[in-house]
Design brief:
Elements (H helix, E strand, L loop, with lengths): L6 E6 L1 H9 L10 E8 L1 E6 L2 E6 L2 E5 L5 E6 L6 E7 L5 H10 L5 E3 L3 H18 L6 H22 L1 H10 L1 H13 L6 H7 L4 H12 L3 H19 L4 H7 L5 H12 L3 H13 L1
Antiparallel strand pairs: 1-7, 2-5, 2-7, 3-4, 3-6, 5-8
Helix pairs in contact: 3-4, 7-8, 9-11, 9-12
Length: about 280
Amino acid sequence: MMLNDLFKIYQLDANETVRIQQSKNEVHQHDFEELIIGVKGQLEHFIDFKTNTYSAPFISFVTQGKNHRVKPLLKDDEVDFWVIRFKSEFIPETTFQLYAHFHENATLTFPTAACFDRLITLCYMMQQETRQSTVDYAVIKQLLSTIFTMIESERKRQFPDVQQQLKNQSTTFTSFLSILEENYRRPEGVNYYAEKLFMSARNLNLICQNILQQSVSEIIETRKLIEAKNLLLTTNRSISEIGFELGYQEKAYFTNVFKKKAGITPSEFRTEMQKLISE
């Protein structure tokens, strides 16, 4: 299924679960981020080339581009999942951190109710905002960011030793992301970031491949693309101006790079998003 919405939230119940179980459900990938918050029922999830079954309460986060398959399962004849789907440019400042945090750790079970109840409250708040005559996406962004902050806090409580180990392993990667945030608008390549980190370009590429399965160049281009989409969506700047701000000297080259990664040109993306928001 392809999704063009910037943000979507809905509840999955027992009837929808039965429909999914009876339909063809193949391993797939999508071009949006997906967070499933399981309140009741079970989830059979194939991701990172293995299958596990989780009982509610749990959360499961699937970053875009990952091959996976989800099968909701009835438990005591009940299923209640919140499903949140959003484009990476919706919260660009946290997207890469999400990729790192959830790499091979897609699902987290919640042993206590207090924190989980607050997640459900935030879901209701986001759903209510989407039903307003004029949706304030800034409110939804803030609520969604809060959800991920609370999930990460719970993960640290559950796995303090693992968190420290991951932190040690990904210190360089985190530093790279921090430097990237400050410099992605510049026309700099792999060597620039490697020098900033006092390491070889080869080693930096190895770390990035290990954590995100992307080269340094791909990550730089992806970050530029996220910001390009953000600027196309939120400003009236010309395509040339946006490209120049992101380190592309020629409009044609920027358009080609954008189309190669996004599948459509910058102007087509802007038109599509404007239609979407005005609906």
